[in-house]
Amino acid sequence: xxxxxxxxxxxxxxxxxxxxxxxxxxxxxxxxxxxxxxxxxxxxxxxxxxxxxxxxxxxxxxxxxxxxxxxxxxxxxxxxxxxxxxxxxxxxxxxxxxxxxxxxxxxxxxxxxxxxxxxxxxxxxxxxxxxxxxxxxxxxxxxxxxxxxxxxxxxxxxxxxxxxxxxxxxxxxxxxxxxxxxxxxxxxxxxxxxxxxxxxxxxxxxxxxxxxxxxxxxxxxxxxxxxxxxxxxxxxxxxxxxxxxxxxxxxxxxxxxxxxxxxxxxxxxxxxxxxxxxxxxxxxxxxxxxxx
Amino acid sequence: xxxxxxxxxxxxxxxxxxxxxxxxxxxxxxxxxxxxxxxxxxxxxxxxxxxxxxxxxxxxxxxxxxxxxxxxxxxxxxxxxxxxxxxxxxxxxxxxxxxxxxxxxxxxxxxxxxxxxxxxxxxxxxxxxxxxxxxxxxxxxxxxxxxxxxxxxxxxxxxxxxxxxxxxxxxxxxxxxxxxxxxxxxxxxxxxxxxxxxxxxxxxxxxxxxxxxxxxxxxxxxxxxxxxxxxxxxxxxxxxxxxxxxxxxxxxxxxxxxxxxxx
Lengths: 292, 263
Description:
The structure holds 2 protein chains of 2 kinds. Chain A is an all-alpha fold. Helices cover about 75% and strands about 0% of the residues of chain A. Chain A has 13 helices and 2 strands. In chain A, a hairpin with a 5-residue loop joins strand 1 (about 130) and strand 2 (about 140). The longest helix of chain A has about 40 residues, at about 180-225. Chain A is globular and about 55 Å long. The model of chain A has no long low-confidence stretch (mean pLDDT about 85). Chain B has a 6-stranded mixed sheet, with helices on both faces. Chain B is built from 10 helices and 9 strands. The two termini of chain B are about 35 Å apart. Chain B is an alpha/beta fold. The chains are: A mainly alpha, B alpha/beta. The interface of A and B includes residues 176 and 180 of A.
């Protein structure tokens, strides 16, 4: 049963991250996921200090706000201070993350959080934190419920906003001209990334979130030329990585999150070498001349 | 020489646009007629694209205002369309030709709605107009420059707008595509649409446009082509590059436009 809960959690996290990651890499913003996943830390700590509980909802709100603040600051530094966007990302998230670390260390006695847990997470503990109702009925791990709810939200978001997300990622200038707000969809996407990040945080850790935001979408990008296929494929790749990663970790008796991230890397290498359209070993044979 | 159009479809009043506090357009004040093919012409860096983007309110303007159809832009977004510069998007994006053309229908569809048959038919019809119907399922990464331009044009056509803004639609396309595009623009004009085109080739300008806007950071001239494309006004627009200009001026006087070499 423990294996089931761990793999389910991993798969749900992988689903959210892979779907949103597709939009991030096509917008050339993959590292914004990295930035958000670190910069939400002060939001989590402040939410904890204000409410005094490790309840998911206040933390999701705190982290969500910080995530949007992060993207806002990145845009602000890039656009108004004319700093390169990667430099703006680097400055913003390290600074916010550092504030989070200071908050944790200053309030160490009161905060049941530590840096290791935040960075690496511990998916193996998922089955231990059960949601038990007052009548004593066990509903399964708390994390599964949180991340499950977030997964449903993200899927709804993508289904409802499919056209707008697709258009604003491909051609923001045209989108704005015909009256689709690029700013609105940008911040909605970033809010979704923040939510996903923080919901995945305590279970899988920031590093696996970054890996799942980037590696499965990048792998899917190498395997297909169709956007819808890319979305589905990246989710499948993420789920396969959760399964394979879990059993790899059991076999090695090592970190589950680390093993899942490793599998996503292996998937990417395989696609890079053997993708039918873009793999470097196969591509040359199939190249057909472009018609003019 | 700045002539005003009667019943203008576009009114620009005292428009100033700056990038990073450096003005690129100064006090532009003009009107454009409905149902015309309008060319916006000037040297590199004259602010041609900036003017077109500012007309659609895609850039923050420092001062002045624009009215389209005698209304503010946000009231008429559904009636305008835009063909951005080809280089402005990533052509390796995982999308098919049909996906891109269908985007032309998004503005009318609204949130929640998925493309219906009418939308798909309109997209297919637009592809036929630019001669690309057999490429509908093709990946956009496999298109040549001319084909990319046709796809962008088809997307704008699918919108069935009344006012079109096109940023350098003839840049880097082959002569067959250029001819096909200008034919299409003329048909649109004859159907009562207004098309505003950013253009950098002086030789073809006199042949293509009914109304010309000469721009070099400030507005030099705006009016019917035959009144505006004079050597004196061109010299004012292009400043020092007189050798090229005297040649062009001579061409204009003789009204001879030799066919251009295929690029």
